[in-house]
């Protein structure tokens, strides 16, 4: 099978960005089907055993984050990870800007990721945040928000690198949203190998009968019942 370059795949032609934008507006997340091919997924999983590529490794149980582990890539990022970050960002920045306008924030995001990263770096957020996560049977990821400093890009992307049913069972990606004065609501996001989910990092705007309000979002992973599961996380802001 031909390997499609990420730039071609992410371009307006190959992905229905209008649908993604609509679904993000309606629900705070959207699936990008087959963002990566299975060969690209396996190649990324194989990187997990290359300590030279990572700046730090986190064992989730040591921090109360859940069970399982992840590693943050160091700069320079592997080509595929760098190109995902660079090519997805310009599609998401207009959505992020619209959200901020609706939520009454004056922060606006530049068109290019390079420019946004310069803003992070100037504020001391210098460390790269893209990461690989690894789970085994009984592992899970507690509900959380990936905030790493003052500068936050409000959308992030997680790509499932393993195949449910074949490589693992359980281990579903979950999102919760907390609306003002209401209890939290959960949503399970069904993903196949290579599918990505774009979702709100922290807040998203919702239009109600009395105007626009802000809901608080969290994400996590339910307990794996068996097997192994890997994910690539692409966060667009860097960390302090
Ligand atoms: O493993 C997952 O699906 C969750 C990954 C995650 O928390 C992230 O990408 O920020
Ligand atoms: Fe996360």
- What is the CATH third-level topology name? Jelly Rolls
Q: Tell me the major beta sheet.
A: 7 strands, antiparallel
The coarse silhouette is: globular
Provide the domain count.
1
**Would you identify the CATH H-level superfamily?**
q2cbj1_9rhob like domain
What's the oligomerization state? single chain
Instruction: Round the mean pLDDT to the nearest integer and report it.
Output: 95
Gross CATH architecture: Sandwich
Radius of gyration: 17 Å
Strand content: 25-35%
Order of helices and strands: HHEHEEEHHEEEEEEEEEEE
What is the topology, as strand order, of the major beta sheet?
Answer: 1-11-7-15-5-4-2
Low-confidence stretches: none
**Discrete helix count:** 5
Task: Give the terminus-to-terminus CA distance.
Answer: 41 Å
* Number of strand segments: 15
Protein name: 2OG-Fe(II) oxygenase
Keywords: Iron, Metal-binding, Oxidoreductase
Organism: Steroidobacter flavus
Domain Fe2OG dioxygenase: 98-239
Please specify the SSE layout and strand pairing.
Blueprint: H1 6-10, H2 17-27, E1 29-32, H3 38-47, E2 54-59, E3 66-67, E4 69-73, H4 79-102, H5 113-122, E5 131-135, E6 140-144, E7 155-160, E8 168-170, E9 173-178, E10 185-189, E11 196-200, E12 203-208, E13 211-221, E14 224-227, E15 229-234
Antiparallel strand pairs: 1-11, 2-4, 3-6, 4-5, 5-15, 6-13, 7-11, 7-15, 8-14, 9-10, 9-13, 12-13
The structure holds 2-oxoglutaric acid (AKG) and fe (ii) ion.
């Amino acid at each position: 099978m031909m390997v499609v370059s990420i730039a071609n795949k992410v371009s307006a032609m190959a992905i229905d960005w209008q649908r993604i934008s609509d679904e993000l507006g309606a629900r705070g997340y959207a699936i990008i089907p087959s963002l990566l091919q299975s060969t690209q997924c396996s190649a990324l999983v194989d990187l997990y055993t290359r300590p030279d590529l990572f700046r730090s490794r986190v064992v989730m149980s040591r921090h109360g984050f859940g069970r399982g582990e992840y590693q943050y890539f160091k700069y320079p990022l592997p080509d595929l990870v760098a190109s995902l970050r660079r090519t997805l960002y310009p599609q998401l920045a207009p959505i992020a800007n619209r959200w901020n306008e609706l939520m009454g924030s004056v922060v606006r995001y530049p068109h290019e990721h390079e420019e946004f990263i310069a803003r992070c770096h100037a504020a001391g957020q210098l460390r790269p945040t893209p990461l690989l996560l690894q789970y085994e049977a009984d592992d899970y990821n507690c509900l959380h928000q990936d905030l790493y400093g003052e500068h936050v890009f409000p959308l992030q992307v997680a790509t499932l690198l393993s195949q449910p049913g074949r490589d693992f069972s359980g281990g579903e990606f979950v999102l919760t949203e907390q609306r003002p004065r209401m209890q939290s609501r959960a949503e399970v996001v069904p993903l196949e190998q290579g599918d990505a989910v774009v979702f709100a990092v922290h807040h998203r705007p919702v239009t109600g009968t009395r105007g626009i309000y802000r809901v608080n979002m969290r994400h996590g992973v339910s307990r794996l019942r068996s097997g192994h599961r890997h994910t690539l996380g692409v966060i667009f802001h860097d960390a302090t």
